[in-house]
Write a structure and sequence with these properties.
With 392 residues, this protein is mostly helical. The protein contains 15 helices and no strands. Helix 6 packs antiparallel against helix 8. The longest helix has 36 residues.
């Protein structure tokens, strides 16, 4: 009852603030819409639709069979986990949580495995780091490479730490051999069985995939707008001594990295880049609540996921600081020059013209994503070839 009362009072207070400051509310909403339409919508829609179609036609079931032995030996996870990790690391926030929730709902992973997978697959999109932040916000693509290296290296460290923390009980032995039909035959049987259990035609699957994906993206857009509004209101309401509490990165990583890029000329570049890496790994409450909504209906818990995000952010901050000196030597200079004239933008003031869109990059990125899966399958084939030779 207390929770209901607090939510009701908070809602009334928010409505009163919105009515009393319509111009500020409008600007905050425009910021959120700009981020959603220019970055989040094109970055997630193709992957959401593709994931639903692959699941409906049994392709994910076939991939789970093919990738099951190497995934169990390397990470102690079933083959389906490779899909969640791959789509989370490429499509970005929410995609990994959606894939993990689907695997848990189908009982392809245990609760402990799903908890581990939820933490590992929640990553910022490479397009966000390399294109939006590097080229759009920082105007220094080289800095994006440092941030990406810090984010990915800290994620790998986090994977190993979580793997050790999971203990042997989360591991499962590799699947047995497939004497009757062989590996490929078993994969085809799994694909046919998965499609049979789904039972939808191509038209139904495509319509459901598009409709469901847009509904999810509308929810994501609403959370981003609320995060932008909360950041703007806190900046107005809080005194200077409490200004860090109004940092937009607490609410949304896109707004937070933009705010940090606006003060690059005021602080040490190594600290700002480390803060950007940490903000990306944290993700902001908007992405965290998106992941929370994705796991509703499963037995996966939000608190361990939240702790994993905090730990990943701390590791990324430290990794960026460690990588700064090698990066400076690699670029043959320890001096830093900011080439953009936008270094004195007010923190949190996002102009639509400063925000690069991702629509034009989608075809190339989808090809790269397909190439990644081709490499994974080739490595899987090599693994099975080595296994057969060892058995012989």
């Amino acid at each position: 009852m207390l929770r209901t009362i607090l939510l009701a009072v908070s809602s009334l207070a928010l409505v009163a603030v919105v009515v009393s400051m319509p111009e500020t509310t409008l600007q905050a909403a425009l910021q959120g819409i700009a981020l959603w339409w220019g970055i989040v919508f094109p970055g997630l829609l193709p992957f959401f639709v593709l994931a639903e179609m692959l699941r409906a036609f049994g392709v994910l079931h076939a991939l789970s069979v093919l990738l099951d032995p190497p995934m169990r030996r390397l990470l102690g996870m079933p083959g389906g986990a490779a899909w969640a990790i791959a789509i989370g690391w490429t499509a970005g926030y929410t995609a990994g949580a959606e894939a993990t929730a689907a695997l848990r709902a189908e009982e392809q992973v245990t609760r402990r495995q799903g908890q581990w997978l939820l933490a590992v697959s929640h990553m910022p999109s490479p397009m966000l780091i390399l294109i939006v932040i590097g080229a759009g916000f920082l105007h220094q693509p080289g800095f994006a490479l440092l941030v990406a290296a810090a984010v990915w290296s800290s994620a790998i460290c986090g994977v190993l730490l979580l793997r050790l923390a999971a203990g042997p009980s989360v591991l499962q032995p590799p699947a047995g051999s497939h004497p009757r039909t062989g590996l490929l035959g078993t994969a085809v049987e799994a694909m046919m069985e998965g499609h049979r259990r789904d039972g939808r035609s191509l038209g139904q699957v495509l319509g459901d995939a598009v409709t469901g994906s847009i509904q999810k993206l509308m929810t994501i857009g609403g959370l981003i707008i609320l995060g932008s509004l909360a950041s703007q209101l806190l900046q107005i309401a809080l005194p200077d001594a409490l200004a860090p509490l109004a940092f937009s990165g607490w609410f949304d990583s896109h707004l937070g990295t933009y705010a940090l890029s606006a003060v690059m000329d005021r602080y040490s570049p190594s600290l700002i880049l480390a803060a950007i890496a940490a903000t990306l790994c944290w993700g902001g409450w908007s992405s965290l609540l998106q992941a929370r909504s994705a796991i509703v209906g499963t037995d996966l818990r939000f608190a361990p996921f939240l702790l994993a995000r905090i730990g990943h952010a701390a590791l990324a901050f430290a990794a960026a600081l460690v990588l700064w000196q090698p990066y400076s030597r690699w670029t043959s200079t320890s001096a830093w020059a900011y080439s953009s004239g936008a270094g004195h933008r007010p923190v949190g003031e996002l102009r639509l013209a400063d925000l690069p869109g991702l629509w034009s990059y989608i075809p190339g990125f989808m090809l790269a994503w397909a190439a990644l899966w081709l490499v994974i399958l080739m490595l899987t084939g090599l693994y099975w070839s080595i296994q057969r030779r060892s058995a012989a």
